[in-house]
């Protein structure tokens, strides 16, 4: 099956053999992860879509793929319209599409280890309106036809030391035990991979760019725990780290273990635990409490050690990025560099630090029109030369043991057009407005989103992605629950210690993309005469913002002061790490407007 057409045909044959009229293929794994291992990349294998979020539905005579605004352009380049309909989320949903397209009485299959209970309920109700039914499968039919499917990762666990974590694993389990007692529950199921990594202070290499291991865990009200992970991943150092209070079992034993809680009350997160977990607990006689994973909020609120580590990682990473920006300033105008060359060069600068564990995501290296593809991923077939007179967008980050970074810079190659400068400056004004925001404790990220969009909106422009996402501590580069967005989240109150991105953008299809991204830390703010407890943002990312793209006359005095102050701090913090031509370039790049 060398083509995606062949794979689609093979899946339809398998569905007919399984007496199914259709099947839903989400881009996730049995842990509801955003970034998944190669073994779980079913959507990419079936359709060719390489984005990090999406779903597909395959019926006997039609098929559809569902993506959000980040991937509107990308899906059309990677997925053949001859076989797939393109559907936009949130304008529609898989459930709504099923309700409108399935034949009367159809049997639509789904894998209960890849969907939440809420999804199952919504899809089932939509199908019922057509006299159709949703059918849980014992084995995923995509896996049945994916003959060369990779095996799950087998890398060993590593201990995440307290000098990076800032809090011992036993202390974290005790806090969960206290939470269980307050919730009148006997145990809690942890299935989100980053929650397990954080709770037990362990890391892994089972998912590219995210240092987690494939595992499940159950934490009990007595602060003991059961960790379900492949035995070959656990060496003596990890056993000693976990201690006697953590019992280690084969990951394959997890599903059966869920049936052993008869008469007990067990908590599970309805957003992060798949439907199969709830079904197994209930089948075993447990009372299930649908509560948020107790690791989610403390993981998001970084402790002082994590904050200090993150700042150290940012300075190291900022120096690497600044060396790259100097390199592109020299090489870009020559017209010989391309997207792959640039991405490799940036990674090399990060590796030269001697501290890089991995990238935090595949570098978005977009020249000209490729920069307008929000989550573009360059390969040999899409690679473009970085040409004079164009914009180059690079969104990248590193995984370091003391922190996770994520930063975007847009660079003028040669002389930018007046339109490029104007729209870059609109984005910059939004970035500065959010960076300078002060807000009462209890404010949600969604309430701040307009600050970054207001200047674009004033000229009838916008961007189809959130303005900010949470970031982990040597964990996932996309971490909840906090977000700055008016859709798909943004309802979580921001709290001191949370780290988020500040990344407004603008994208002109077929021409160029603009995004300016720094990470920010939510911190308390002392305001004279304030009657409420106030918060604000401390900018954590330090690397020059391209002054050649700034239309200075569009900035207010306050905005100019912010940018000059920011660049002064970049020079102060990053300058001592550079030398020679790179330092000379940095001084010019950080000169006052």
In a nutshell, what does this entry contain?
With 593 residues, the protein is an alpha+beta fold. It has 19 helices and 28 strands. The protein is globular.
The helix content is: 25-40%
User: What is the β-strand count?
Assistant: 28
* Count of all domains: 3
Question: From the helix content, strand content and strand pairing, which structural class follows?
Answer: alpha+beta
CATH superfamily of the largest domain: Creatinase/methionine aminopeptidase superfamily
For this structure, what is the CATH class of the largest domain? Alpha Beta
Which strand order do you get reading across the main beta sheet? 4-3-2-1-5-6
Beginning-to-end CA distance, first to last residue: 58 Å
Shape: globular
Number of helical elements: 19
Strand content: 15-25%
Poorly predicted regions: none
Q: Whole-number average pLDDT?
A: 96
Which value, in Å, is the CA radius of gyration? 25 Å
CATH architecture of the largest domain: Alpha-Beta Complex
CATH topology of the largest domain: Creatine Amidinohydrolase
Largest sheet: 6 strands, mixed
List the helices and strands and how they pair.
Elements: H1 4-17, E1 22-26, H2 42-47, E2 55-59, E3 63-67, H3 72-78, E4 85-88, H4 94-101, E5 107-110, H5 117-128, E6 133-136, H6 141-145, E7 158-159, H7 162-165, H8 169-183, E8 187-190, H9 193-200, E9 202-203, E10 215-220, E11 225-229, H10 236-242, E12 246-249, H11 254-257, E13 265-268, H12 275-283, E14 287-290, H13 296-300, H14 304-331, H15 339-351, E15 356-359, E16 364-367, E17 390-396, E18 398-400, E19 403-404, E20 407-413, H16 418-435, E21 438-440, H17 445-457, E22 468-470, E23 479-484, E24 499-502, E25 505-508, E26 512-515, E27 518-525, E28 534-539, H18 557-574, H19 580-589
């Amino acid at each position: 099956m060398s083509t995606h057409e062949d794979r689609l045909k093979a899946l339809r044959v398998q569905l007919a053999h399984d007496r199914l009229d259709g099947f839903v293929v989400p881009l996730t794994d049995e842990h509801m992860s955003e970034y998944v291992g190669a073994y779980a990349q079913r959507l990419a294998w079936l359709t060719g879509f390489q984005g990090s979020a999406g779903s597909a539905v395959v019926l006997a005579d039609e098929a559809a793929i569902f993506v959000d605004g980040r991937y509107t352009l990308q899906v059309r380049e990677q997925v053949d319209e001859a076989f797939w309909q393109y559907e936009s989320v949130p304008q529609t949903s898989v459930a709504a599409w099923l309700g409108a397209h399935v034949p009367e009485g159809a049997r639509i299959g789904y894998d209960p280890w890849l969907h939440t209970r809420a999804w199952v309920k919504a899809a089932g109700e939509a199908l019922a309106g057509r006299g159709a039914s949703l059918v849980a499968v014992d084995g995923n039919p995509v896996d049945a036809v994916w003959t060369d499917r990779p095996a799950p990762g087998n890398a060993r666990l590593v201990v995440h030391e307290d000098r990076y974590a800032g809090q011992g694993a036993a202390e974290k389990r005790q806090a969960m035990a206290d939470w269980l007692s307050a919730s009148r529950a006997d145990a809690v199921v942890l299935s989100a991979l980053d929650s397990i990594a954080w709770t037990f202070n362990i890391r892994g290499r089972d998912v590219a760019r995210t240092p987690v291991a494939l595992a499940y865990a159950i934490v009990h009200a007595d602060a003991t725990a059961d960790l379900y992970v492949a035995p070959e991943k656990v060496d003596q150092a990890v056993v000693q780290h976990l201690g006697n209070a953590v019992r280690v079992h084969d990951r394959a034993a997890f599903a059966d273990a869920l049936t052993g809680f008869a008469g007990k009350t067990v908590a599970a997160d309805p957003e992060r635990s798949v439907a199969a977990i709830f079904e197994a607990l209930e089948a075993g006689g447990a009372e299930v409490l649908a509560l948020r994973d107790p690791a989610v909020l403390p993981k998001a609120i970084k402790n002082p050690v994590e904050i200090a580590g993150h700042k150290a990682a940012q300075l190291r990473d900022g120096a690497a990025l600044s060396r790259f920006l100097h390199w592109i300033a020299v090489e870009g105008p020559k017209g010989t560099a391309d997207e792959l060359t640039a991405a490799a060069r940036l990674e090399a600068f990060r590796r030269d630090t001697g501290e890089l564990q991995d990238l935090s995501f595949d570098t978005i290296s977009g020249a000209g029109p490729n920069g307008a593809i929000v989550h573009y991923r360059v390969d040999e077939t899409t690679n473009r030369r970085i040409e004079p007179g164009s914009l180059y967008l690079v969104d990248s980050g590193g995984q370091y043991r003391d922190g996770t970074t994520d930063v975007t810079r847009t660079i003028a190659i040669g002389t930018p057009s007046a339109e490029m400068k104007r729209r870059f400056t609109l984005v910059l004004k939004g970035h500065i407005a959010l960076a300078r925001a002060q807000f009462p404790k209890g404010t949600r990220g969604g309430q701040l989103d307009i600050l970054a969009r207001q200047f674009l909106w004033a000229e009838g422009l916008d961007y189809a992605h959130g303005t900010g996402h949470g970031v982990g501590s040597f964990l996932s580069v996309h971490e909840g629950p906090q977000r700055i967005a008016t859709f798909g989240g943004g309802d979580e109150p921001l709290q001191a210690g949370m780290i988020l991105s500040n990344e407004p953008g603008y994208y002109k299809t077929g021409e160029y993309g603009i995004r300016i991204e720094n990470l920010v830390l939510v911190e308390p703010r002392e305001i004279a005469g304030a009657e409420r407890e106030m918060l604000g943002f401390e900018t954590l990312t330090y690397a020059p913002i391209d002054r050649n793209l700034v239309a200075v006359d569009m900035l207010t005095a306050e905005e100019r002061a912010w940018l000059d102050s920011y660049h002064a701090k970049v020079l102060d913090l990053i300058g001592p790490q550079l030398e020679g031509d790179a330092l000379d370039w940095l001084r010019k790049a950080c000169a006052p407007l």
